[in-house]
Structures are given as C-alpha cells and as structure tokens.
Amino acid sequence: MKYTKYKIVAFLALSTLMLGGCKKFLDTNKNPNIAGNLGIELVLPSAQVEIAHVIGNNFQVNGSFWSQYWTQSPLANQYKQYDQYQPSTDNYNRSWGILYNGALNDLQYVYKTAASKSDKNYMAISRLLTAYTFQVITDAWGDAPCVEAIKGLEVDGGNVNPAYDAQAAIYDTIISQINEAISLIDVNSPAHPGADDLIYGGDMTLWSEFAYTLKLKVAMRLSEVNPTKATALIAEIEADPNFAGFIADASGDAKITCTSAGGSENPLYSEIVGVGKTQNLFASATCVDSMNANSDPRVFVFYKPLANGNVVGNTQGDYNNSTSATGKSIVSYIVGGEAAQALSASAPVRLLSVSESLLLQAEASARGWLTSGDDASLFYSAIDASFEAYGITDAPTIAYYKDSTNWGLYPTAGSETDKIRHIVTQKWFSMCGNQGFEAWTEQRRTGYPDFLIQSVNSLIGSKRPARFVYPTEEINLNANFPGLKSVDQKVWWDVN
Amino acid sequence: MKKRLLLTLTVLLIGLQGLLAQSSSVRGKILDDKGDPIPGATIRVKGTSKGAVTDVNGNFKLTIEDGATLAITAIGMKPTEKSAQDGMSVKLVTDQQSLRETVVTAQAIKREKASLGYATTTLNNAELNNGNNVSALGALQGKVSGVNITSTTGGPGGSTRVVIRGEKSIGGNNNALIVVDGIPINNGNRTRSNSLKQVDFGNRGNDVNPDDIESISVLKGAAATALYGSDGANGAIMITTKSGKSKSKAGKNEVSFTTGYAWSDILKYPTFQNQYGQGDLNGVPDDRRENFSWGLPFNGELRPWGQVINGQQRVKRYEAQENNVKDFFNIGKAWENNLSLSGATDKGNYFVGLNTLNSKGVVPNTFLDKYSIRLNANHDFTNNLYSSINLNYINGSSRVDQGGQGEGSVWNNVCQQPRDIPIGNLKDLNNVFNSQDYTDSNGVRRYGYYGAYTENPYWVAKAFDNRNKYDRLIGQTTVGYRLGSHATISNRFGGEVLSDRIYLKSPKLNTIAFEEDFYGGSPKSFNGGYYESTDNFSSYFNDLMLSLNYQVDKLGISAVIGHSVVSKRSNFLSSNIDPVTNGLVIEDFYNFDNAKSKIASANNLSRSRKVGMYATVNFDFDKFFFLEMTGRNDWSSTLDASNRSYFYPSISASWLFSQHLSDAAKKVINYGKLRANISSVGNDALAYQNNNPGFVSTSVSSGFGSNIFPFNDVPGFTYQNSIGNSALKPERQLGKEIGIELAFLQDRISADFTVYSNTTKDQILSVPTPSSTGFTSRVINAGTIKNTGIEAGLRLTPIKRKGLRWDVFGTYTRNKNVVLDLPGGVDQIVLGGYSGMSIVAAKGKPFGTFYAIDLLKDANGNQVIDSATGAPKSTTSPVYLGSFQPKFMASWGTGLTIKGLSINVLFDTKQGGYLYSRTKDILEFVGVTPSTTLNDRQPFLWNNSVYENSNGDYVTNTNVLTDVYNYYTAANLKPAGQDLIKAGYVKLREVSIGYKLPQQWFSKTFIGSGSLSIYGNNLLIWTNKGNDYVDPEVNSGGASNEQGFDFSARPSVRNYGFRLGLTF
Q: In this structure, are residues A269 and A355 in contact, taking their beta carbons and an 8 Å threshold?
C-alpha cells in the first residue's frame, strides 16, 4: 500500500517530465513543403510568363472577338459570350487573379529584393512590367486597385480590402513607374538578368527601348482625354538625355517565345488542348473581307486557307447558324488558334511589338507631337515590320500592298484625321489575332477601324463592348468594390 | 493552465493519502447473471464508511476487519449482501434491464448509461448488421437520432459522411471522430477531383469490418467527448470490436462462419422522355453524330444510324429505347465471408476474425476487394496486472468509375445517349460500328462509334482506369496495474500505419471518323495521362491514465487523471502526367517514363503533435444522482508556442428520479432520468496554417490551359497564394444539452428526448481574399456557427411473450444551423461549387447554402421575360437559394421475432434540403427529360410571366413566346439555380428476415447452430416532387464539406442478398 503513493507520485512526475520535454516535441510546425526567400532570378521569369499567359489567352481571345478578327464556330460553343457582348463576371476571375496575385505580387518581390541589394536593372525591369500590367488592367477594367494593391502580407500593411483608384490616377502611377525605371536602367552595368529574362535575355538596351515605347504608348492612350498631357509626355521623352530610341527592329519585339514542350506552349493553344482540341475559333468576315479587299497577304497567315486557297470568314457572331460553318476558314496555327495543328503550340505571345512601336510613333508624328521621325515612312516601316514578323517576304506582293491598296497606302496628303485613321487601322490589321486586346483597346480610343459590325447575337443591341466586367471574386470578396459596371460603359480615356 | 491542473491533482492526492493507509485486504469480482463482469458496482462495508467500486473487469479490492459484511449495489441490479472473503465472486440478479445498459465513453471507459449526463446511443452487432451493410458507418443510418449520415453511392466502397448535431466548422472537418477500441482512426477522404472529373474511393472510416464489431456507441455532444478534446469536437463513434469474452463463457471456444452473397442494381434512374430522338432540329434534324435528342418525333420507321463504314450502315427503327440507360448497367455482385474463432478462460480471452469481401460494381470493370484479419486478446495476470491487445490488418483494392463532366465520366456519357440509341448494343468494342479505335485497311486509325460529341460509355468504362489499393494496420495494446483497492494505473499505446495508393489512368487515343467529311471536326483526340499518389500515414497515441475510486457512505467518488500524446504524420507523394497540359508518348503504357514533358510532382509532408493532460471527477450519490466534471489541457504543435496551450472544461449531471418513486409508481414508470450538461471544447489548426507564405514552382492556369515551369528550361517560382497567421488561437465550441430518458411498463415503452445547442466560434478559417491583395486566401480566427436542435427516440414493444416479440421504434432529429458571424468584410466563404453555382457559408444563412444565378422574378413572383426574344431573364448576380442541410430527419422501424424467425424493417427520411444536380443539367441540355418536351417543343407562353414595357413597368405577358430549345440548349438561358432540386427523400433503408435454423438439424453434426437471413439495404426511394433525376444522397464531394453536389455522379445502388451463419 505504501508503494501506491509513490506510484502515483511517480505517475505525476513522469507526466510532468513529458510535459517539460514537450516544447521541443511540439516544435514541428515549419512547413517543409515550400521554399523560403529565394533569388529574384527565379521569380522574374514567373512574372513574365504570368503576364504572357493572360495576354496570350483570355485577353487574346476576348480582344480578338471584339476586334472582329475571330468569331465563335457554329460547331462549338466555348466563346459565345463574347459574340453576345455579355461576358460573365466569372470569366475574368482567372485573368484578374493571375495578374494581381501572380505577376504583380511576384514583381513586387523582385523589386523589393532587388532594391535591398541596389540591383538597379532588376528593379527597372520589375517596375516596367508592373507599369505594363497596371496599364493592361486599367485599360480592361477602368478603375482598379493600384496604390493599395498587393499589400496582403502583414509586412506590407495587411490590407485585405484594397481601395479602387481612379483610372487617371492609375495612369499617373504607371507614368511615375516608367520614369523610375528609366532612371534606374544602367546599360553599362554588368549586373543584369540573363536567361531568366524571357523577354530580352537581360539586354538592357532593349529594355530602355521598351521603357520609352511603353511611355509613348501610355501617352498616346491619353490622346483624346488629355492631349495636353500626352504632348507633354512625348516632349519629355524627346528631351530625355538617356533617350536612345524606341523599339525599332525585330530584336526589340517584346514577346515570350513558346514551344511545343509541355507547359511552355502558347497559352491559347494549351487552352484549346484542354477543351479537347475543339475548334472554336473561326475567322471573322469583318477582318477577312477587308484584308481580301486590300490584297493583304497576312490573311493567309493569320487564317488557315481553305483547300481552294481562299480565306473566307463567317459573319461576326453568327454561331447559331450551323449551316454557315461550311466553307469557312478557321484561325491559323501562326497565332496559336488551330486546334488540329500542333505547331500552334509555338505561336509567341507578343506584349509590345515593333510594328506597334512604329505605328505609335507614326501617329504621334502625324499629330505633330513627336518631332523626330516622318509619319509616312514610319507607317511603311511598320508594314514591313509586321510582314517580316510573319515571314512575308515576297517583294511584289508587299510593294503592291503599299502602293495600291486602300489601307496599305498612306494618305500623305490627307487630313490628320485620315492619317490617324490609316495608322490605327493598319495597326488593327497587324495585330490580327496576335495582339487582339491592344487592337480592341486602340479601337475604343480612336474608333478605328470604323467598319466593325454589330455581332449577329449581340445582347446589347448596337452598343459596343467598351470594357471587361469586373470579376466575381472582386465583387464577392473586396469590401471596397465600388460597384458593377456594364460591358458598354466606357473607360476614362474613351471619350469619343 | 498547467499549474492549475497540477494543483488539482495535488489536492486530490493529499485527500487520498489518509485513505490509502490500510493493512489487510479482500479481493473479489462482481458479475451479472450472464457471468459478465460489472464495472462500477459499489461495495460497501456495512457499519463503516468504507467501500470500493469495481473496475472495468468487475474486480475490487478492499481492506477490512474480519467477518465484515459487504453490501453490493449496481445500477439495474438487485442489491445483495455477502460476507467478505478473499477471492469471492458475486453474481447479481438483474432488476431493471434498461438500467443495465453500458456505454463505451471517451478514452474507452465503460460506464452505465444511467449515470451519464449526456446523450448517447449504443447499437450492438445485431442491430448494426440487420441490413448487412458493408459499411459500418452506413449501417448506422436511421438508427441514431441527432446524426446526419450520407452514403454517397449506396454500395460497397462509397463515401459515408457522419455529422453529429449539425455542421460546426466552416474551414475544418465536420465528420465525427471514429474511435476503434480506444484509438482514434484516420477517416480521410479517398476522393480525387478537379473541374473535369471526380473519383470517389470512399473514406477511410469505412475500412473496419462491420462483422468484427461488438457494439457502437455514438457520443453526440461535446460533453461526451470532452476527453478527446479537439478531435472529439464533432462527436464520436466509439467502436468496440468483439472479444472472446462476449462470445462465449469461460472454457468454451467457438468457431463461427458466415457467408453472404448480395446483388446490387441502380436504385433510381432519371425519368426520360420517349417522344423525340437523335438529332438537332435547329441544325441537322436527323443528325447521326448527335448527343442531342432534339431531333424529330419518333415515327417507328426504319432509319439508318451511325457511320457509313465500308459502304455499310446499321439500320434500326426510329423509336424510343425506353430502357437503354438501364441496359448499360450490370447487376453488381458481392460475396462476403467471415470466419471467427474465439475462446475464453477465467483469466483471458481471444478473438480472431477473418473477413473477405469480393464485389463487382454495376459499372463494367469496377470492383472492390477487401480482406481483413483481426486479433483481439485480453489477459489478467495474477499479480494485479492485466493487458489487452487488438490488431487489425486490412487490405483493400478497388476500381471505380469516374464522375464529372470530362470524357472519362461514364455516367456523363451515358446521360448523353439519344433516346433511340440502343446503348446495350454498343457493348462489343470489337464491332467496328462501336469502336473507338479501329485500324482500317489502309492502316489509318478510325472510330466507328456513332457519336461525334460523346464517347462509347463501354469504352470509357474500360479505358479510364481508376484504382485504389491500401494496406492498413490498426492496433492498440493496454497494460494496466491495480494499485491497491482504489487505484488503477493503465497505459494504452496504439495507432495505425496506412499506405494508400491511387492510380488514375486516362487513355491516349487519336482516331478520326470513318466518315471523315461528315465528322470532320470531331476527331477522338486524347493526350492520355497518368496520375499516381501515395499517402503514407501513421499516427500514434499514448494514454497514461490513473483511475481512482472511493466510496464514502453513500457517496461514490471516482476520478481519472490522464496524460496523452498524439503524433500524426502524413507523407503524401503525387505525380501527374496531366492529360490536358502534358500527355503520354506511347499508348497504353502508364509509367512516368512515358511523359511528353515535365511531370507535375508534389511531395507534401505534414506532421502534427499534441500533448494533453486531463482529469475527470465523478460523484455518485447513492446511485440516483450523478455529477461529472472534466477538464483537459492540450498543447498543440500546430499553433505558435504562445497560443498552443488551451484548457476546456465540462460539467454534466444526471438524476435518476425513478429511484425515488414508490413501487407502485415504478410499475408504470420503471425508469426516468433527467440529464444536463454544459461543455467547452478547443480545437487547433491544421499543420502549417501559421506559416508565412513561401514560394512554390510556378504553374499558371486559366482553367483548361496552363503554363508550367521550368518554362523552356528556365526555372521559376512564385509566391504561394495563402497568407498564414502566426497569431492563430484555438477554436472554441460551447455546447449545452438537456434531456430526459423514460421507460414505462417494464420497458414496454421507452423514450429519449434531448434539446441541445452548440456554438463554435473563433473558427480557424482559410478565408478567400481578393487577388488584388496579392494572395487568394488567408488564415484567420473568425466566424461563428450555431446549431440548435432536438433529437428524440421512441421504442414500443406491444408484444413481448415467450418466443414472440414485436418492437416498433423511431427517431426524429431537427437541427437548425446558422452562420452567425463571418470575418469583417466577408459576406460568405465558398465551400465548393461548379460553373455558375457556389456552395457557401454565408452570414445569417445555414452552412452550405447554394448561391447561384436564378430566374428573375418581379415583385409578385412572376417570371420576367425579354419582350423581344421571349427569353426568360435571369438575375444579374447570384442569389441565395436553399441549403444542403435537411430541416429534419426521421426514421421508423419495426422488428418482429417469432421463435427462430425475425423480421426487421427500417425506413428513414430527410426533408427540407437542396441538391445541385449536374445530371439534371446535362439531361436537359441534350433533351432527354420530359421537361424538354414542354408544349411539344413549340414556343410557349411562360406561365405567370411579365415583361418590361417602354415605361419600365412590368406588364403581364400574353403574347411573347419562349422557345424550349433556346431555354435548355441553344442559348443556355437556363440559369444554374434551376438545377437545384429538393433533396428530400424517404428510403426503405433496410429489410431483413432472419431464421435461426432448428437445432435438431445439427444435433448429430459438428455444427453448433445455424442461421439464414435474407436482407436488403437502400431498397426503395421516394423523392420530392420535381426530383425526377437522382437519389439525393449521391454526392460528388465524398465526405468533405462540399455536399449536395451531384457532379454527374453515377446513380446509387440498392443491395439485397442472403447470408448463412454457422457456429461450430
């Protein structure tokens, strides 16, 4: 019996001992499945692909439908909502998410980490891509979280309901980010990215060209809403002692190269594979007819010719008429849209192109805002660049196009309006299915091309889609969400 | 907290010190009239204040003067007096059977039900296995009030979700804890799903063989499970497996063998229309490629169908194949064998159980095979030492069909067969007209199957191969030592190791149609893929317990002080050759060497540990008033050191008021008990939820397409999407309950009624954040859910005579659940969902409310129609619709025993919940439901509809017609909210007829006894009006929180068979 007492005491002592030793026993909660802070060279490429994934897929398809390059195949139904001009708010969750929690978050990490080491070129690249991303976001959705965005972590302020900034303010932020990048770029520094920069391979001279071209693009977007500011920004570029030129040739083409290797495919094609290689994308008659009417050789590049060699488009939005599918062309593999052609995997994603750069200069020049450069020669160089980018080298074809066709021939003696009309319409042709979002955005800014039709299945009548609708997740999750905007409500710079 | 606990223990010790100092002793054992030991019997030394209480094995030890007389009392037994004698064994005579019921409570402590201050239900093996359900959890259905059980497939291998007293946790698990012989077991889901597919291999709690189970006690409230703390917050299913003792008396060994054979077929098919066949009136009316039944009305004329192959084409009458869907399914078959050996001596006993289950499912090629072996043994050593061991090895292997919307979904492909297609004729895949892969004379690979937009379901069932294999060892060993008269120290160590492998094969195929031109745009093109995952899980539990008991006059005091250690580790490895973003190089070769490009692999190691100290003190005042207090403190590894310690107490009381009644009154009310309790439970976080985000290899996906790093050989990493929270504190649940138990007329009528409420607050939630924060979710403490409800059980025995007994019983449960509070700024948290439909936890709504776009009604409830197109308008944003939780559940059953014959019937019902059915959606889309034949498919005037006139007013619609085809198909006008259906049902859950074979048959054989039964479960169903589609129990979320979601889930089955039992 006496032992009992000791046994009980021993039990308690044992328990207490186990408790005492439990601090270490319980320290098992460090997640072994994730990597800690890591080098920015591993994060920058992620941000670039995240941007390209959105621009090359969701924005590409949506933009190309609303630019009337593409229309829904009557034999399938994936993209009817675009031809109805009534996209669902669910449709934009992914793009919004990838841009914010993917690209912008990763770019912020690159910038902050680079800044802590004064790694100026990485800082500059992350700033430029941040500016690019914010412009894409605000051009698509108008007002959006910017100043308070990407502050979810405690160390960044722990703001889980970022307020919306007016689009004008976002443009100011973009401009200051580009200016900061310009001041940071050091072309002579040996510290710059290498293969981890999927766009330019670390060539800081090209990044400098990118920076000024992006600034020009930003300035030109303000042409209608605030021409004074646009002019001033362009003047600022020309007065900048560091300014050594805009993107001028194919090496400056800001693009992500895609390959057939799994995971590295063109994102649009990857999506097509994901839906069982269904051919949803048909050629739209709006673009095909005007290319055909102008003997534009690009019609055979951006679309897949029929067996008889012709390219025939379907009326925009005529997807309910299944008999109309017969004898119509589909989108080509060159732009990643041909489901049955594996080469679609290799279509690059263009973020800012040479021809775009040249046409931006041509327009600025035609308006008299850019003093260096000649609008007509910039216009023709842009056509050359566009043809070159898609392997069109046949001199007589090119010459004929430039000399004899309505849209290929620059109205040197024409009015400023007519010049702008030609420049922007030419931009529209050059961006067919490869920069669909930018083409639609420029159409919203300028109204060119002026021959887009009303989609047969438009659910908003003769009104044009003027924005993306906000994604469901913002509506549901952000306490500072300012309210829905319908698809026909124009963004701030869209004043015509 | 630690200090407080130690202080309590010290006080207890000091109090006991004086009592333990004695000199001579008597040992004894108290048994009931069957010879089974009675734990908790009180032995008092007459004329003194001394006494003792028997332990789990009925043993007691007392120190007394010579010649003393012992007064022995036990609940439900007639009191006895005996003179003390060392080694005495006393048999008590049963007085009140209803009071004798014992319950296995937390930490496997056996207690008399009458003394408990909380609601419990105990089922013995026979009650559990009436319907011969191969799932022990499924077998509880309809038998326990307060418990919501959902069996997804109805047949072998499906998931069974058990939720006790309502959904309590938004972010965590709501399933009850499953405890086998004192060891909590892993009840993880074996489901695999993504936006395209869903594969359900069931949940792990179903691995225990029902035939090995001696009894199941369901502990419903937090008070009952407080000693399991965090893990017991959702209630507990306490499974006690058989021991040799229960089967046979000391010295007698027994061999028993049962064999059963069962068939299964589909319980409920959708209702189909039989008026229109294959085609698309808006396209090609008699389109041979179509999955649409939007073609011409049937006319019975001969018509060619399918492709023209080598100039030949099949011909059939253009008429409805009314049973074509039924024809697809096989009759499932299951053969189950149980062999057990058991024996006992006065010192020990053993039980060995062997079980085999071999079954073939209703979908071709599916099967489930399970083998298990169990060894249970107990031994009492002479020197106050006793021990027991339980070991259970289970090996399972299954192949199941895939659900969902992808090409690998069998049911999705069956649903899309036009009404005139004889599905049964598609079975022979070697027949060129049925083939998905046929090499023609020129060496070109083609398909001859008619459908351009569907796959041959027989091919799908063959080519998409989804398998699960597991090996599992569960065991425990207990060693106890009796320390004198008043104390026992025991240690239980147990746990399990589990290796669970899942293999998903999806075929690579590239074939074109024979009729290339006509079928041109529709090749059969699949990249092929292979997924394999291994979950190596292990858990260890150690419980060290000191039990004390003391009897002072009429006051009994007993206490348990314990220390527990839990350690769990899961090493989950998965590799995936994704059929969408990657693919196989070579066909029919499922190996990771055979990937076109980088394989997505993940290793996920998760560890969690917990240390706890607990104490419980019970006061028993003269066997009529009982008071129990428990306290537990846990220290969890998943919380930061500063927050990892948490304490929770409970108090419960029970008053056996019938003890005060006069003998005359006792004849009417022979048992009456009031009980009440209040309790608190804490809960910790999941592993790593308090960690800061790190980086993971980048994979960007926009739904169907993705870009994965290394991208062109450049590696890339991206921020994780979730923000951890280092300040996490434990969640808290507060439960209250009050109840009454009554029995009348010598147990002819018995009733049990409980009112309860439980509130869970500070829930640890991973809540979504807007992506504009840079992250998609963060972990926080927030959110409150409240459940209030009543549960009732009633049993009547109208006839009770020798050789004849008739029982009628029923249960009723009503639970009201509401999400009271969510974190600031968040209106709702998404639990799951599908295109256009979310299942959410929203403030002010029940957990699991559907949130979807629905048809737009005006203020008077009239449908708003577009005046131009006739299209019904939909709401512009999602609206809250019903919840998946039933408003009430009930069951009623009857049992009749006439000599050797027994008949049991059980019905159960759930009413008031909702279900989202993609089966309905796809059936309507392809035009095979009666709803799609509305107005003979001519434009119709929508009942009670309005449209907006130019003034913006709604005016009654008398002339604008709506197009049926546009509504269901062409324009996709039907909003997701219209695919919600009422999930109420009444089921004939179980029927069994058992016959004890006449003893004389065996008198000259080595066979001891025999029994034969025929049984069925999930036999018949009646659903709510409007549900012409599915058994509402099917669920694609398995046992997860995503419930009420039919993602083209294969219909559930009914099972029926016979069973022969022999003992030797």
A: no
pLDDT digits (tens, 9 = 90+) for B644-658: 999 999 999 999 998
User: Which residues of A fall within a CB distance of 8 Å from B484?
Assistant: 1, 4
* For testing contact with chain A, the best of B16, B540, B773, B827 (most A CBs within 10 A): B773
Question: How many interchain CB pairs under 8 A, A with B?
Answer: 322
Could you list the beta-strand ranges (E) of B975-1052.
980-982, 985-996, 1009-1023, 1045-1046
Evaluate whether B841 touches B850 at the Cβ level (below 8 Å). no
Over range B374-399, report the average pLDDT.
92
DSSP B968: I
Helix (H) or strand (E) holding B540: strand B524-552
Min Cα distance A424 → chain B (Å) is 30
**Other residues' Cβ atoms within 10 Å of the Cβ of residue A13:** 11
Indicate the SS3 state at residue B2: helix
**Res A1: pLDDT:** 44
Question: Average pLDDT in the A378-383 region?
Answer: 97
What is the pLDDT, as a whole number, of residue B6? Answer: 45
| Block residue for tokens 């006059």 | B553
Cβ atoms of B805 and B797 within 8 Å: the answer is yes
Q: Which two tokens stand for residue B463?
A: 């080519």
**Minimum distance, in Å, between the CA of residue B562 and any CA atom of chain A:** 9
B354–chain A nearest CA distance, Å: 38
A49 touches chain B (CB under 8 A): yes
The Cα–Cα gap between B704 and B196 comes to 9
DSSP state of B140: G
- The model's pTM: 0.84
Q: Does the predicted interface ipTM exceed a cut of 0.95?
A: no
Question: Higher confidence at residue B814 or residue B113?
Answer: B814
State the pLDDT at residue B96: 67
How far is residue B858's CA from residue B843's CA, in Å, rounded to a whole number? 25
Chain B, 776 to 835: residues with Cβ < 8 Å from chain A are 776, 778, 824-828, 835
Mean pLDDT of A285-296: 96
| String of DSSP letters for B188-199 | -EEEEE-SSEEE
Contact B489 A7 (CB under 8 A): yes
State percent of chain B over pLDDT 90. Answer: 51
**What DSSP element (H or E) covers A219?**
helix A204-221
Counting beta carbons within 10 angstroms of the beta carbon of residue B834, is it exposed (0 to 12), middle (13 to 18) or buried (19 or more)? buried
Number of residues written out for chain A:
496
Closest CA to A294 of A405, A166, A150, A179: A405
Calpha distance B177→A381 (Å, rounded): 73
Are A286 and A439 in contact by the 8 Å Cβ rule? The answer is no
Measured from the Cβ of residue B951, the count of other Cβ atoms closer than 10 Å reads: 7
Judged by CB atoms closer than 8 Å, whether chains meet at A264 and B826 is answered as no
Q: Which of A7, A11, A110, A154 to substitute to test the interface with B, most B CBs within 10 Å?
A: A11
Sign of CA dihedral A39, A40, A41, A44: positive
Nearest in space to B793 (alpha carbons), one of B381, B198, B327, B220: B220
